[in-house]
UniProtKB/TrEMBL annotation:
Pfam families: Lamp2-like_luminal. This is Lysosome-associated membrane glycoprotein 5. GO terms for biological process: establishment of protein localization to organelle. The keyword Hydrolase does not apply. It comes from Dicaeum eximium. It is found in: Cell projection, Dendrite; Cell projection, Growth cone membrane; Cytoplasmic vesicle, Secretory vesicle, Synaptic vesicle membrane; Early endosome membrane. Keywords: Cell membrane, Cell projection, Cytoplasmic vesicle, Endosome, Glycoprotein, Membrane, Signal, Synapse, Transmembrane, Transmembrane helix. InterPro entries: Lamp2-like_luminal, LAMP_CS, Lysosome-assoc_membr_glycop. The gene is Lamp5. It is a single-pass type I membrane protein. The keyword rRNA-binding does not apply. It comes from the Eukaryota.
Length: 251
C-alpha cells in the first residue's frame, strides 16, 4: 500500500516543495525542489489581426496534490495544482550498465510531462484558442546518479519541453534539488548525496583560492625558515682573512 505526503510546509523556503511517497510505512521516494515553468502562448495584437507571443511564469504551487508510484526499476511522481489546471509528472528509471570497473547501476530522470490549461486566468491572460496542452521531454536523461545515492543540486537547471501547442518550447526551471526515487535507506532519510557538476565546480571555485592561499603561505614560511637557517650558519663560520700578511697575527 502506497501513501503520499506533501511536506512543503516544513521548508523554510516558500518556493521550495517537499514530497514523499511511502510504501509499507517506509519512504520509497522523496523529492525536494523549487520549480517554475516558462510557457509561451499566443494573444491577439491590438489590431485583432496579428498574433503576438506572451510568456506565462507558472510556479509549482505549495498546495499541490501528489500521487506517486514506487518500483524496483521505475518510479513516478505526479503533482497537480489549481484544480488540476496544471499537472507535472516526473518518471525515473534505474538501469545497469557495464564499465571498465565492471557492472554498475544508476538512476535518472527519464521523462517529464507537464499539462497546462491556457484558459486558467491566474497566469494566462486572454490566450487565443484557450485549452489544455501537454509539454513533454524527448529522450531525456537528466539528474543521472549512482544507484543507492540521492541527487543534489542547488544551482538552477533548465530543461526544455516541447508543447502540443504548435511545438512551442516550454522551459522548466529546477533549483535547490534533493531527490531520491530508489533505495532510500530509512524513513524520511536521504542516502549520501551525489552533487551535480555545476555544484562541484562552484565548490571548487570557492575552495581553490583558500587552498592556493594556504600553499602560498606555506611557501613563504618555508622560504623564511631556510633563509633564517642559512643566515645563522653563515654568521657562525670563521672568517678566514684573504690578506696573507694577517696570518702572522693568528695563533
Amino acid at each position: 500500500e502506497q501513501e503520499v505526503e506533501n511536506l512543503s510546509g516544513l521548508s523554510p523556503n516558500p518556493e521550495k516543495d517537499i514530497f514523499v511517497v511511502r510504501e509499507n510505512r517506509t519512504t520509497c521516494l522523496m523529492a525536494e525542489f523549487a520549480a517554475k515553468f516558462i510557457v509561451p502562448y499566443d494573444v491577439w495584437a491590438s489590431n485583432y489581426v496579428d498574433l503576438i507571443t506572451e510568456q506565462a511564469d507558472i510556479p509549482l504551487s505549495r498546495g499541490a496534490e501528489i500521487k506517486g508510484k514506487c518500483g524496483t526499476n521505475e518510479s513516478e511522481l505526479e503533482l497537480s495544482w489549481l484544480d488540476q489546471a496544471y499537472t507535472l509528472k516526473l518518471s525515473f528509471l534505474k538501469e545497469g550498465h557495464n564499465t571498465s570497473r565492471g557492472p554498475e547501476a544508476s538512476w535518472r530522470l527519464s521523462r517529464i510531462q507537464f499539462t497546462y490549461d491556457t484558459s486558467e486566468r491566474t497566469y494566462f491572460k486572454d490566450a487565443v484558442s484557450p485549452g489544455k496542452h501537454t509539454a513533454s521531454s524527448h529522450r531525456l536523461s537528466a539528474l543521472v546518479t549512482p544507484a543507492g545515492r540521492s541527487y543534489e543540486c542547488q544551482a538552477q537547471q533548465t530543461i526544455s519541453l516541447v508543447s502540443s501547442d504548435h511545438q512551442k518550447s516550454v522551459q522548466l526551471l529546477l533549483s535547490e534539488v534533493r531527490l531520491q526515487p530508489f533505495d532510500i535507506p530509512a524513513d524520511f532519510v536521504f542516502s549520501e548525496e551525489h552533487k551535480c557538476p555545476v555544484d562541484q565546480r562552484e565548490q571548487l571555485e570557492e575552495t581553490l583560492p583558500l587552498i592556493l592561499g594556504l600553499i602560498l603561505g606555506l611557501v613563504i614560511v618555508i622560504t623564511l625558515g631556510i633563509y633564517h637557517v642559512h643566515h645563522k650558519l653563515t654568521a657562525s663560520q670563521v672568517q678566514i682573512p684573504r690578506d696573507r700578511s694577517q696570518y702572522k697575527h693568528m695563533g
